[in-house]
Amino acid sequence: MELRAVFAGFGKSKAFAAIGRALMPADRVLLRVSGGRLGVGTALGLRTLLLTTIGRSSGEPRQVPLLYVEREGGYVVIASNWGGEKHPAWSANLIARPDATASVGGRTVAVRGRLLDGAERTEMWDAVASYWPAYDRYAVRAAHRDIRVFLLEPR
Q1: What is the pLDDT of residues 56-106, one digit of tens each?
Q2: Name one Pfam family in it (predicted).
């Protein structure tokens, strides 16, 4: 059995979200140092990239590790914030300044983030949620907001 499948069930729990939040700083460092080759998520068999956005208020680079699925030559990422009540800051940064970089698999790619809606959002949500079913649980926990879905397109 694939390691990702083992963690998929646990990934739906609030405990996993708490652990995930606590591990994000280490994940960010590992992904930065390895150029997107190795992180906490990749060690668990998860496709993980390191997204670098520019802070909408600070103007400073901000990095966040994210699960992704490749689609249409780009990367689909979901701004679930583990099902939290607010959108994650990186998603607001990406809306304000869509140009960003993604470090994945040892290379850094200049990308432009595009917020998806309608049928395209649904299709991409389904693609990522089939890879990591916990996203459907996060959507239940975040029922008061629509979780943002982005396509990071190479530029």
Answers
A1: 999 999 999 999 999 989 999 999 997 888 999 999 999 999 999 999 988
A2: F420H2_quin_red
Q: Is 78 left (phi over 0), alpha (psi -120 to 50) or beta?
A: beta
What domains, with CATH codes, occur in the chain?
Answer: 3-154 (2.30.110.10)
Q: Are strands 48-54 and 99-104 parallel, antiparallel or unpaired?
A: antiparallel
Rounded Cα distance between 70 and 139, Å, is 21
Among all chains, which residue has been given the structure tokens 């140092």? 33
> What distance in Å separates the CA atoms of residue 20 and residue 27, rounded to the nearest whole number?
9
Q: Tell me the three state secondary structure of residue 85.
A: coil
- Residue 15: what are its φ and ψ, rounded to 5°? -65, -40
Q: Which of 79, 147, 144 is nearest to 113 (CA)?
A: 79
Cβ atoms of residues 50 and 63 within 8 Å: yes
Which tokens belong to 53?
Answer: 């956005």
Give the neighbor-by-neighbor strand order of the sheet with 61-67. Answer: 61-67, 48-54, 99-104, 107-115, 148-154, 74-79, 69-71
